[in-house]
Amino acid sequence: METPPSLSTAEQRPPSSLISRLLNVFAAPVDVFEELKTGKPIIANWLVPLLLACLTGVIYAFVVFSQDSILRSMREAREQQLQKQVDAGKMTKQQADQALEMMQRFGGPTIMKIFGSIGAGVFNVVMLFLGALVIWLLGRWCFKSQFSYMQSLEATGLAGMINVLGGIVMMLLAVMMGSMTMTPGPVLLVHEFDPANKVHRLLGQLNLITIWYIGVLVLGLSKLGRVSYGKAAVWLFGIWATLVALFTLIRLGG
After folding, report:
1. pLDDT by residue (tens digit) across 104-132?
2. Quick one: which of 19, 110, 112, 150 has the most CB atoms within 10 Å?
3. Which residue numbers in the chain have pLDDT < 50?
4. CB neighbours of 148 closer than 8 A, spacing ≥ 6?
5. What residue spans of 65-207 are helical by DSSP H?
6. What is the DSSP letter of 58?
């Protein structure tokens, strides 16, 4: 009499396609991270989302910095900042005019598109590898887990598909509302965004797409680290809340 196959063998499924993994991050992230936990690392799992994020950043820069309303609001903000410096006696009117002329000369649409595209690429690369490092260190030091950095990189990269969607949403909001300060969240209820208002700044950082992204990262850490979702959430959302608070205070102090 033959011995029946073990449950794990019977339920073993072939690896999903890359397209399925990219899409299931939105619909069934549990399945994606369960597969990462047991499968061999695949470079495409983090490289393709990274390339898509960089491409989205380039499109964002070219579309947003082609909007006259956005360029005008940025110019007015620079003028107001310089005028405050003049009123405070920190510079003369002539110095302010010279500074404004330099900003307009080197801050034209073409230059902003180029530097915006480069900045988007650098930002996405840094955030991917830094985010993966945080996930890996939390798993190794806090939860005593043994998953590899490459698995962490895969999880962070695939979760980044949510930020790809977020980039598209924020681009559309910027075009429709004529402001780069608008994010999908409570800041949309603010009639006129004031960068000097600490409440407005805080609301601008409560980006629902970012919260969704972190929630999915928490799930990835939970599955790879074999810990409860709650424990992983305390760490990742705690780090995010701390960074939001620090960023708000630093901006306010500037």
Report:
1. 777 788 999 999 999 999 999 999 999 99
2. 112
3. 1-11, 252-254
4. 41, 136
5. 68-87, 93-106, 109-137, 149-159, 161-177, 198-205
6. H
